Amino acid sequence: MGLFKKKSHSITALSASEIPNYSALAALTLNAINDGVILIDEGGIIIFANPAAATMLGYGSPTNVIGLNYQTVLRFETTDGERVVPEQSRLAQAIQTGQQFDTREYVLISAQSERKAAISLTMIPTGGPRSNKIITFRDITKELEKEEDQNEFISTASHEMRTPVASIEGYLGLALNPQTATIDERAKQYLEAAHAASQHLGHLFKDLLDVTKLDDGRLKLHLVPVEMIATVCEMADVHEKEIAKKHLKYSFGTTGPITNDKQINQLVYAAVDLGMLREVLDNLIENAIKYTPEGGEIWVNARGDGDKVLINVTDTGIGISPDDAAHVFQKFYRVDNSQTRQIGGTGLGLYLVKQRVEAMGGRVWVESAFGDGSTFFVSLPRLSDAEYKRRLLAYQNEQTIQAFADTPGTKPRVTTSMVSVPLHGETAGVATVHMTAAQATPSAVTAQAAQAQTAQVQMQQAQTQPVQTAQAQVQPQTQPMAQQTMQAQQVVPSQPTGNANDLTQGLTIPRNN
Question: What does the pLDDT read at residue 199?
Answer without folding.
Answer: 82
